[in-house]
Every structure is written in C-alpha cells, then in structure tokens.
C-alpha cells in the first residue's frame, strides 16, 4: 500500500491527563491501532484511501474517518465505539463482530458489507446504504436508521428493538426471526420483505408498506397503525399473531395451502368463498 503524502493524527494520553497531537504516517498509524497501546485515532487524513486494508481487531475508538475509503477492508473485531464514519465508503468491507456502539455512519456506503454479529447499538445510520449487506445477528438496539437503504439486506435474527427505521427502505429484506419490538417503522417500505417468525410487538407501522410481505409466524401483538386494507398479497400462517387485527385479517384473506393464507389477494375475495379462512391465531 502506497503511503506517499498521506498522514494521520493521533491523540496520545499524557500523564497529566492532557492530549498532544502528533502526526504519523498512515502505516505507523495503522500499526499503532493494531497494537495493544491505548491510542485513540482522530483521523486527519489527506487522500484517505484504505481500500483492502487489514484492520482486523484494530482499536479505532472515537476515530474521525469522515469520507474515508474502506472498500473491501477487513475491520472484523475492530473497536469503533463512537467512531465518525460519516460518508465513509465501506462497500464489501468485513465488519464481523465489530463494535460500533454509538458510531456515526450517516450517509455511509455499506453495500454488500458483512456486519454479522456486529454491535451497532445506538449507532446513527441515517441515509446509509446497506443494500445486500449481511446483518445476521447484528445488534441494532436503539439505532437510528432513518431513510436507510436496506433493500435485500439479510437481517436474520437481528436485534432491532427500539430502532428508528422511519421511512427506511426494506424491500425484499430478510428479517426472519428478527426482533423489531418497539421499533419505529412508520412509512417504511417492507414490500416483499421476509418477516418469518419476526417479533413486531408494539412496533409502529403507521404508513408502512407491506405489499407481498411474508408474515408467517410473525408476532404483531399490539403493533400500531397497521394499514392492512391497503396491503396486498401478504402471506401469513396459523401461527401468525395478529392481536386486535385478527378479525379484519380473516375477513380479507383466502386459504392458499394447509397452513398458508393470503391477505388482500390481487384477485380479490368473493363473499361466501369456501377459500375464506376460519379463525386462527390470536
């Protein structure tokens, strides 16, 4: 990796409790971050290009990496608590098990990134692009994902309790067994999303689009403002928990198989049709 004319600034804790800023070359900075020394990276990068860099396990707590190119970089297990990655390019980056608690990723590009089992609790990802990202088991509790692009993202068993997903784009996302309790999904687009056995207890779904969504075994107990009259071709099963919406769902659904129903099918429902389901679930 070429390091000509690139510099990075570090804040080193002094015995007096004060900090002193010392310039270092990019490679020196990375080496320090990878060492066991208690350094904090406050990046001041010229031509910040770290494509393909190996930062596995690096201590980058509080790092200011605004707009840095980290395409394909390995940041698995890295400590990025409170890091500033605004507008950073993290396409196809490896962030498996990374600690991003409180990190600022507003407008970051995470297309195809692998954040499996990463911790993004209370992180800010407004307008971030997470298309096709691997978010299996990722902790997003309390995270802010306003307007985030999560099209096709794999969020199996992700923890999104209390997350702000207002106006997020979740089309075709895989949220199987994800926990979205108390999440704000108002005006989010969940068209064709897989929410199999997902937990949506007390989630705010006002204005959310659910066309083609798969809600087999999902728990929507006390979910708020479900626009069920507008959603079309929503599939559900005997184990889906609709709470107070059950009667309306049954009235507007048809049976498609032994344990599968379709809410608001495109072809409509004929009154008295033998395909209308009998009461199921609670």
Write a compact overview of the structure shown.
This protein has 282 residues and is largely without helices or strands.
| Spans where pLDDT lies below 50 across 5 or more residues | 1-28, 35-47, 278-282
**Total count of helical runs of at least 4 residues:** 2
Computed Rg: 23 Å
How much of the sequence is in beta strands?
5-15%
Instruction: Give the overall average pLDDT.
Output: 84
Oligomer: single chain
- In whole angstroms, the N-to-C terminal distance is 60 Å
SSE arrangement, N to C: EEHEEHEE
> Helicity range of the residues?
under 10%
Total beta strands: 6
Strand order of the largest sheet: 2-1-3
- Structural class call reads little secondary structure
Which sheet architecture does the biggest sheet show? 3 strands, antiparallel
Write a structural description.
The protein is mostly loops and 282 residues long. The longest helix has 9 residues. It has two helices and six strands; from the N terminus they run E-E-H-E-E-H-E-E. The protein is elongated, with a radius of gyration of 23 Å. It has a three-stranded antiparallel β-sheet with strand order 2-1-3. Helix content is 5%, strand content 10%.
């Amino acid at each position: 990796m070429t390091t000509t004319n690139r510099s990075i600034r570090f804040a080193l804790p002094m015995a007096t409790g004060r900090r002193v800023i010392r310039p270092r070359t990019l490679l020196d900075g990375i080496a320090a971050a990878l060492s066991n020394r208690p350094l904090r990276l406050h990046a001041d990068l010229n031509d910040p290009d770290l494509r393909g860099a190996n930062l596995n396990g690096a201590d980058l707590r509080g790092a200011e990496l605004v707009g840095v190119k980290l395409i394909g970089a390995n940041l698995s297990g890295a400590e990025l608590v409170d890091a500033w990655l605004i507008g950073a390019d993290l396409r196809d980056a490896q962030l498996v098990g990374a600690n991003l608690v409180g990190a600022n990723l507003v407008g970051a590009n995470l297309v195809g990134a692998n954040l499996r089992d990463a911790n993004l609790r209370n992180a800010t990802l407004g307008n971030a692009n997470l298309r096709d990202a691997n978010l299996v088991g990722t902790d997003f509790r309390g995270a802010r994902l306003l307007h985030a692009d999560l099209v096709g993202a794999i969020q199996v068993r992700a923890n999104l309790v209390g997350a702000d997903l207002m106006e997020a784009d979740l089309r075709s996302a895989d949220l199987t067994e994800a926990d979205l309790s108390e999440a704000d999904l108002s005006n989010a687009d969940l068209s064709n999303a897989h929410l199999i056995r997902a937990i949506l207890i007390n989630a705010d779904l006002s204005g959310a689009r659910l066309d083609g969504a798969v809600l087999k075994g999902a728990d929507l107990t006390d979910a708020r403002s479900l626009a069920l009259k507008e959603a079309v071709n929503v599939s559900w099963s005997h184990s889906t928990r609709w709470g107070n919406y059950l009667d309306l769902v049954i009235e507007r659904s048809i049976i498609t198989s032994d344990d599968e129903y379709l809410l608001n099918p495109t072809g409509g429902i004929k009154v008295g049709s033998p395909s209308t389901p009998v009461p199921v679930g609670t």
